[in-house]
């Protein structure tokens, strides 16, 4: 019963860019961190998903992290970070300093396993460290824990190595191998750059033709498409498919020398390589699946928020089916800029909901 469980006004699941931004705004709007607003994260350290990214990933032309709200007040900015250091170290250190400067009291490691009706109008948040009752739930659990791998005939019989983006550690793990990189986003191109000269050969495979562009309008269109899908409760589209890849000198030179020239999707995986529909075959020893992610929402399943279309209906970061549930960093908010904006929009609605008379 509720006796065993602590209580909160709002529980935030996840302390990545989205969860921290929400927590900062809630604090500013008067909720006491750690008491009224409790942030839970299953990770061992600050940094959200960034703490787990591969060693070679840098904040550069392809990867830019937006400053969190209030970050400049405490003398921190990603804009002046040392771009030669691994992004995962920079982000972990900055989030750590941020959490401490604003005393956000993130509880970790705490894994949320299920969110269900408490029976008294509140929600019961079950974790591997006990349960919490709350009036509002803000889910900011990101996507890193749910890499998506498309189905291909023969994949189980492949004799080589297969990894998805979260399992990728370093190019040296693929030294001397013939490597296929699947996927049309910046993770895929990053891997190809790193593998050049280390792997014996690389082949790049994408579902759609690749577009290198500097057009900022492409990003706006991709966010709009994600917003339309979220409002309709459809599965979310791929962001990189909509934005195109950055037309940096490094990428354009790699296109010139043949490194970043994509082949269309193969039709089947054979024990020793890839087979295309036209009969052509490419022997490979390893496949890296940089094929995107899905939102990690299994812990919300008891609330029954899913639509028959396969997604959740979300408007302005709020679940249409349950006004006590917010999704920060979901769909159109799935970038560090989007996650920041989500913080403000979601926190405002949370506070309005909490101030409304009970039962509303
Ligand atoms: P996350 O950072 O994933 O945080 C979610 C947190 O929730 C994690 O700390 C996790 O431990 C926790 N969590 C999840 N489930 C549970 C649970 N059940 N219980 C408790 N805790 C839980 N965006 C950009 O704007 N710029 C970039 O350069 C950029 N580069 C990227 C590179 C890669 C390889 C990838 C995959 C994505 C990149 N993105 C980039 C998108 C990026 O994911 C977002 O920008 C942003 O970091 C996501 O923040 P978030 O808070 O939504 O998620």
Structure description:
Helix content is 24%, strand content 21%. With 360 residues, it is of the alpha/beta class. Strands 1, 2, 3, 4, 5 and 18 form a six-stranded mixed sheet that branches. It has a five-stranded parallel sheet with strand order 6-15-7-8-11, covered by helices on one side. Strands 12-13-14 form a three-stranded antiparallel sheet, with no helix packed on it. β13 and β14 (281-283) form a beta hairpin. α1 (17-28) runs parallel beside α7. The site of flavin-adenine dinucleotide has 32 residues, from α1 and α7. InterPro entries: Auxin_biosynth/cation_transpt (IPR050982), FAD/NAD-bd_sf (IPR036188).
Note the overall shape: globular
Q: Helical proportion?
A: 10-25%
Strand tally is 18
Order of helices and strands: EHEHEEEEEHEEHHEHEEEEEEEEH
**Ligand types:** flavin-adenine dinucleotide
Helix and strand content put the structural class at: alpha/beta
Mean pLDDT: 94
Radius of gyration: 22 Å
What's the main sheet like? 6 strands, mixed
Question: What is the tally of helical segments?
Answer: 7
Through-space gap between termini: 24 Å
Strand content: 15-25%
User: Segments where pLDDT lies below 50 for 5+ residues?
Assistant: none
GO molecular function, one term: monooxygenase activity
Keywords: Oxidoreductase
Pfam families: Pyr_redox_3
How would you summarize the topology of this molecule?
Layout: E1 6-13, H1 17-28, E2 37-40, H2 87-101, E3 112-117, E4 123-127, E5 130-139, E6 161-164, E7 178-182, H3 186-195, E8 201-206, E9 212-213, H4 216-232, H5 239-243, E10 245-246, H6 249-256, E11 262-264, E12 268-270, E13 273-275, E14 281-283, E15 286-289, E16 314-315, E17 318-319, E18 325-327, H7 336-355
Parallel strand pairs: 1-2, 1-5, 5-18, 6-15, 7-8, 7-15, 8-11, 9-10
Antiparallel strand pairs: 3-4, 4-5, 12-13, 13-14, 16-17
Helix pairs in contact: 1-7
